[in-house]
DNA sequence: GTAATAGTGTCTCTCAGACAGTATGTC
DNA sequence: GACATACTGTCTGAGAGACACTATTAC
């Protein structure tokens, strides 16, 4: 017995907007919920997409123009009530993009909304965003994940601020740097950031260590 | 553009067999791979199953007779190569069952294989088991999850042994008990386990705290 | 008594947190 | 010089690990 099931991918696109975690939303071009703000999503294309991840990357690229440096499966929402068209499966992915990359690649037709100010979204998209937030916050302290929100180069103060924003708590500067040194996944570029006061060393992620998991929290 | 996609659920059933983590496998009744050992799995039934979790519970119940006390979504495997019939989606779940419950509920037609001795499985079932193992091992130290493998009542020595088996490392008795006391999720039943030597106090999980996550490792 | 397992007490050393201190830039 | 930000050094308290110790059963 084989039944036809609607299979879509939906992407939660996270970035930092004014030092707050924000989500990328699009106005839906088609029914159902045409015209409403929702997560970028679309059908899986069996000919085009080798797997779920590829489908998510394609959907994100086609709908927003963005090639996310970080894209990972989040959860799969599958039930008979989430879509008015009937039983459906949504392969949910989440993406992390820094503001610079986003500004440079993004098409205009798309909104960034801070997670604290999200409107009611169609389908179960609020649940999907919640699940994404939970995942990002849980993983933040134990991984290099927030680095993808900080851009390609950053000062240590900026990186610390990024971790603090995602984790939702203040960190001690001295402790943060001590652990960074131990974990050894950033390296100085040699460049400095000039500003109003003493310039700061610029750093980047060591290419081989861009996706690390730690034993202890940062 | 809506395309029909095969949607199945597959369940990795973990239990402890001779102090080793083992997986429940079934001989496939139908093509493809008829007669081969594989994970219990089946199609989603849109009329019957309210959601993915319900589908996984039903498949596990129908194929093995087991009502798993712990059942959680693991990952979704979706691509064009995993099933010879074409592009397919497998909603993978993992279940934890203690030996006593398993013995009492299980139908006979099913094999328990220690994870170290797994044969080559059809589809991408080896990948699914690997993912499940990874998940269980990662979560073990930070959750009550291994308790579901220990049975409804257990001595502290048995519980420690269970954690050690799942985590793959020895723990210090004194440290283990100190943390158990702090986390406060087991309670004495009042009963004792009689044996060859000094009897041990029996414990159970506090019903309200059966699924806890810890900040620190046990 | 001995053996074996249950359960507890205590020392030490590591490390996170707190915070003060120094360095180097702008004005 | 003052001030602001970058960066470093050091003290302390909590807690994990190691391990010895006591308790209670069977024999």
What structural category characterises the helix and strand content of chain A? alpha+beta
Order of helices and strands of chain A: EEEEHEEHEHHHHEE
Strand content of chain A: 25-35%
Helix content of chain A: 25-40%
Note the main sheet of chain A: 7 strands, mixed
Task: Report how far the terminal alpha carbons of chain A are from each other.
Answer: 50 Å
Shape of chain A: elongated
Give a count of the beta strands of chain A, DSSP E runs of length 2 or more. Answer: 9
Uncertain runs of chain A are none
Q: Show the largest interface.
A: A-B, 28 and 28 residues
Rg measurement of chain A, Å: 19 Å
Write down the overall mean pLDDT of chain A: 94
Oligomeric form: homodimer
Report the total helices of chain A: 6
């Amino acid at each position: 017995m084989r039944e036809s099931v609607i299979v879509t991918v939906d992407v939660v696109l996270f970035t930092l907007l004014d030092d707050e975690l924000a989500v990328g939303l699009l106005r839906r071009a088609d029914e159902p919920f045409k015209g409403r703000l929702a997560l970028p999503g679309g059908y899986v294309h069996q000919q085009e997409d080798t797997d779920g991840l590829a489908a998510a990357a394609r959907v994100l690229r086609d709908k927003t123009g963005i090639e996310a440096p970080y894209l990972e499966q989040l959860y799969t929402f599958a039930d008979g009530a989430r879509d008015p068209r009937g039983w459906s499966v949504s392969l949910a992915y989440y993406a992390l993009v820094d503001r610079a990359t986003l500004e440079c690649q993004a098409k205009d037709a798309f909104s960034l909304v801070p997670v604290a100010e999200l409107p009611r979204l169609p389908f179960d998209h609020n649940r999907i965003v919640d699940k994404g937030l939970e995942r990002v916050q849980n993983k933040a302290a134990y991984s290099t994940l927030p680095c993808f929100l900080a851009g390609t180069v950053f000062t240590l103060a900026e990186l610390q601020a990024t971790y603090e924003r995602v984790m939702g708590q203040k960190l001690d500067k001295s402790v943060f740097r001590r652990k960074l040194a131990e974990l050894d996944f950033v390296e100085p570029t040699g460049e400095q950031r000039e500003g109003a006061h003493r310039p700061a060393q610029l750093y980047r992620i060591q290419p081989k260590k861009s996706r690390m998991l730690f034993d202890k929290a940062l």
